[in-house]
Amino acid sequence: MNVHDSERLSGLLEAAGYVRAGGGEPDVVVFNTCAVRENADNRLYGNLGHLRPVKDGHPGMQIAVGGCLAQKDRDTIVKRAPWVDVVFGTHNIGSLPTLLERARVQSEAQVEIEESLVTFPSTLPTRRESPYAAWVSISVGCNNTCTFCIVPSLRGKEKDRRPGEILAEVEALVAEGALEITLLGQNVNAYGSGFGALAAAPDDVRAMTEGGQSAFAGLLRACGGVEGLERVRFTSPHPKDFTDDVIAAMAETPNVMPSLHMPLQAGSDAVLRAMRRSYRQDRYLGIIEKVREAMPDAAITTDIIVGFPGETEADFEETLHVVREARFASAFTFQYSKRPGTPAATMDGQLPKQVVQERYERLIALQEEISWAENKKQLGRTLEVLVAEGEGRKDVATRRLSGRAPDNRLVHFGVPDEPVRPGDMVTVEVTYAAPHHLVADKPVLDVRRTRAGDAWEARQGGRDGQKGVSLGMPAIGRPAQADAPASGCSAAP
Ligand code: SF4
Q1: Rounded distance from Cα 388 to ligand 1 centre (Å)
Q2: Which atom of ligand 1 lies nearest, measured to the CA of 491?
Q3: Which class in CATH covers the domain with range 382-450?
Q4: Which of 199, 398, 439, 448 has the lowest CB atom count within 10 Å?
Q5: Domain extents for the chain?
């Protein structure tokens, strides 16, 4: 979600006439901060400190700080770093160009933080980083209160975007060349809960819930009807709201990809209770079982926090148990660390670093073993890979290209004889499996040139200009007002 917010910030600035600095010294630097990750504030103030002499040597340069940390720290930022020109929050990212201008004219720092959303972020201009794969927000904010998470207090309550608007954006992206979209929300399965009583709901909302299905299941099926859209993904679902009709919609909608990222956070019921995550181990594993039944080839990934306050060795063993049972294709693993402002930060039972570290290493070792074993099952399989830009850091040295399989596994493959561009599709056979990627070193079986590849090619040379900025989506049926942009529910300390 932060990445998508940054696309909006770029789009806003480019629409206001700014151009990318390229290799030169920039006139404006914008930090889009995250308060979820560890040491976010240290990193921000460290970066601001490094920029101070740069700004001193570059009269007129402006520095802006936005995102969750700005929402949290507000004017503390200009107190600690008085050379910052603009501070804006999560609810008013659309104000950035105006605030930069005002700071310039008034020669004075501008701090503007809103308590609720000013403009639904999807109505803002967006500078999409990729012409072939795009993020689409379906909701913003979160109604949950996980005790380790700062997101709800900084991003606000969940507000859902109307399905008509979402589908209009998806169709517009596909018309521009996108083959893949990822639906974004803090808790995508809760999508629709904000629309109120169904009888009074607008037509596009009722259409999503036809036959009694959940609005998110309806949205997935509706994406299945968008011509030219080849891949649909979503992030993140919350296990508490995961309904069977979503599994059915995933399995029965051909362009919804067989991959699921579902945060576990902990395997122990006691820890889940302390985290205020209202599902339990058996429910989580039950969802996994149903997903595997409906989509045997689905790659399931997760987020896990180790060392939550009060976690005992027996609790941690429960996490290892779920990891063994679920056989995740991969997992984002985090060591718990306090986030000031969250209930967990003041809980009893904070664990010593060495205990957390030791458990963390055991978890990583187990997950690596499982990831590798699961990847080895892919050997010999033929996969269609969406060629990506910048996914394979060693591609030049290894003379390979990289992309994503339908289940989102990273695949490195040998350069085919015919030209291939990011956004094109190649068909390859997997010849080697590592824990975090697959390799296909036999000759590429097929290259399919796509509209997305054409769009990527057309964009080359337009990097520094206005090309690639799509106008904000018009709101349908209601004023362009909703809630705040959110950062992923993959949120973990
Ligand atoms: S972890 Fe996810 S579901 Fe829980 S409060 Fe944070 S954003 Fe919401």
Answers
A1: 30
A2: 1
A3: mainly beta
A4: 199
A5: 2-112, 128-257, 260-377, 382-450
